[in-house]
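Q: what sequence does this backbone want?
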């Protein structure tokens, strides 16, 4: 597995940028230097994140999102796998 998170990733299984293995590993996002926990999708090369807007849902039952532009820093939450 790669030591760097993907350039673009989404948590919606219907998205072409969804990657279950990466999400299981645990990815954290720093946006403009602040830790964000409500990120639905991000793109490092284009410099944006989609954040869920509270608990509101669209007609299809997906979270409503807000797209914000700025520096995006993804990282793996588990820097090193735990050894047993």
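A:
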């Amino acid at each position: 597995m790669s030591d760097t998170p993907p350039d673009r990733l989404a948590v919606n299984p219907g998205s072409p940028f969804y990657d279950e293995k990466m999400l299981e590993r645990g990815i954290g996002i720093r946006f403009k230097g602040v830790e964000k926990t409500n990120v639905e999708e991000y793109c490092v090369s284009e410099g944006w994140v989609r954040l869920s807007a509270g608990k509101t849902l669209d007609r299809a039952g997906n979270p409503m999102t807000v797209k914000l532009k700025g520096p995006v820093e993804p990282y793996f939450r588990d820097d090193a796998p735990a050894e047993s």
